[in-house]
Amino acid sequence: MKTSIALVAVAGFAAAASAGQNFSLSIAGAPATVDSTGGATITVDIIGDSDFGTHMLGGSFAMTSGSGMVSGMTWAAASWSAFNTDGGYAGNGDYNAVIFGQLVIPGVPPFDVPAAGSELGSAIGSFQIVIADGSFGTLDLSLEGQSPFTLQVLDLVGGGTADSANGSLTLNGASINVVPAPSAMALLGLGGLVAGRRRR
To answer: 0.70 exceeded by the pTM?
Structure first.
């Protein structure tokens, strides 16, 4: 699903930083293993970072897994993000593009200071992911950047802005081992033995 992006403008800052800056979005808080017996819900945070600047301004990204183990997913933007668009769950473990952002206008209170919590290395928001009952396998979560940029940042100390369209972007995913509880696995194995005996 294509989503047009109209992100907030930053007025009054010096020209954008030169190309060559590094930007990243990372999935944080994903458990190594999830017990899918009875279904499970996990929450993962999306963290934005850059080697330039002090705060996040905005951007857009999507989440993909292509996995039938996911039966639902919701997005909650961080409290600092005032301008949000939620593309919604696309099915099959994929989430359409979300847009996040804030308005910062230097010299115009109260818009001259970025919102608390928008510092680089902080959460952009979180996904709640519902794992289907009895699911089994590896759930690989990946982030996809969107146009015109995935992350835009500003520098309160030196001034200026920069965005991932003019720099290097790294998208860090996560892998989760999804298994039913050991007792459920034993029942599945026992069921296989019984089915095997009936066929003979």
So the answer is: yes
What is the model's pLDDT at position 109? 86
CA gap 171, 20 in Å, rounded:
16
> C-alpha angle 28/175/35, rounded to 5°?
95
CATH for 22-199, among 3.10.20.30, 2.60.120.280, 2.60.40.680, 3.40.50.300? 2.60.40.680
From CA 30, how far away is CA 28, in angstroms rounded? 6
Report domain extents, the chain. 22-199
Q: Please enumerate in sequence order all residues whose Cβ is within 8 A of that of 118, keeping only pairs 6 or more positions apart, or say none.
A: 55, 56, 57, 78, 80, 81, 102
| Mean pLDDT, the chain, whole residue set | 87
Angle at 65 between CA 61 and CA 66, to 5 degrees: 120
Find out whether 63 and 73 touch, Cβ atoms under 8 Å: yes
Reported as a single tens digit per residue, the pLDDT across 37-81 is 999 999 999 999 999 999 999 999 999 999 999 999 999 999 999
Going by C-alpha positions, the residue among 57, 74, 60, 80 that lies closest to residue 145 is 60
**Amino acid sitting at position 200:** R
Check residue 1 and give its pLDDT: 43
